[in-house]
Amino acid sequence: xxxxxxxxxxxxxxxPYAGRAQATRRPRIAMTARRHRAFYMFTxxxxxxFLLLTVTPMAYALWLSFTTFDGISPxxxxxxxxxxxxxxxxxxxxxxxxxxxxxxxxxVPLSIVAGLxxxxxxxxxxxxxxxxxxxxxxxxxxxxxxxGLAFKLLFDQNSGAAxxxxxxxxxxxxxWLADPYARYVLLMAVLWGAGNVMIxxxxxxxxxxxxxxxxARIDGASAWRAFRSITVPLLSPVLxxxxxxxxxxxxxxxxxxxxxxxxxxxxxxxxxxxxxxxMMHVFAQYFALGRYGYASALLxxxxxxxxxxxxxxxxxxxxxxxxxxxxxxxK
Length: 331
Prior knowledge:
By secondary structure, the protein is mostly helical. It contains 13 helices and no strands.
């Protein structure tokens, strides 16, 4: 091959355009790389926290669920699926799980209805509306320990304000913190913190277009019909979110432990039977009996059940939730 037969790259047809395209591609690649670095830099605190504070404890609890570890003694052994087999044959576990499910089925709808009613109330053009919103939301800011102690003092059989009102009208004092009234006190404690649901519902109400309500009023629709046919469908994503998060929070509540009368240091033996929920059973296995392996198995079963329940809620609500934008639409 002679020198004249060799054609340089710059002499080939289209070579200047190819060089220009490569030069344009390089800055784009650099810009994309910088964006990726910035993304991971800003999200790294959350990623590290998630790995260290969520994934690691869950993995450790999963490993504990296959052992007989008691938290203190170095003499433990690998139990395999023994803890899970015991769990399946334990009637106390299933009774506690049933009570937790019943509590979730009753408390979540009541909380959503109460929060939505309060949101509709404070969404009206009232005087001192901001003050009412603050006062109604204030109980949700109170820590659960403080709320539990307040309700324990309020419903104490000997010196509580609730029995004080009853005795004033000549009615005999009631043991509110014992069966069968303890479950109602627990529901009242949950509804007392409905301000959190109210704030989320209020944000959803303010996103409903007023033009739709005005058109419904012109067509002769009543306020209840407009609320049922316009407001509720547009609030359905908010209601779905509150249902899922409320279900998860209700099955993990520790309020019965805070409402228990004074007793032993663990507080488990003084919890009324109606308030002995699933998490109380887990607490008893961990701290009263020192069965870390069995308690970890209980927690992992609860985690799987919550995943299944969340999936069922999304499946059942798929045709009843109205989205302004298709959540599955591809960009």
